[in-house]
Design goal:
The protein has one domain: 4-Layer Sandwich (Purple Acid Phosphatase, chain A, domain 2). About 20% of the residues lie in helices and about 25% in strands. The protein contains 4 helices and 10 strands. α3 links the parallel β3 and β4. The longest helix has 15 residues.
Amino acid sequence: MIKIPDDVQLWFSSDEHYGHENIIKYCNRPFQNVKEMNDTLVQFHNARVNNGDHVVHCGDFAFHQDPIPYIQQLKGVHYFVRGNHDPYKKCQILHDQIIDIRYHGQHIVACHFSMQSWHEQHKGSWHVFGHSHGKLDGIGMSLDVGVDAHNLAPISFSEVSKIMEDKK
């Protein structure tokens, strides 16, 4: 269980696919090339996230590449869930497939893939995921937090909270 301090802001993101030229076509992203996409994703991230904020990335951060050069450009303290395009198996910044988070008393299960059920679901826990690039509605109290579902930028805990409240 990762306990995020209540005095910081928490953000979620997924499927940035830094360095992945073909994701522009696959997801109909509005870029001419991968450099423009990478630069814009960094700009959009840094416009929302501050240095002391915490960010949970739900997989597919950098497409088959070293993630460090991209991480170094981003504001925040980062947690990474392994996605299916995250090959850096021995990278110590990566968590396995699922991480449990506690923030402001809310239990959150973060995974790259959408799940139909998750730990403490019957007790009000949330599930945040990626992988589907905005093409899969969450079941119950779950939400796709990928950049393709949220204007190519991270989504805040408070924004997720509002969405979850509307789902009740």
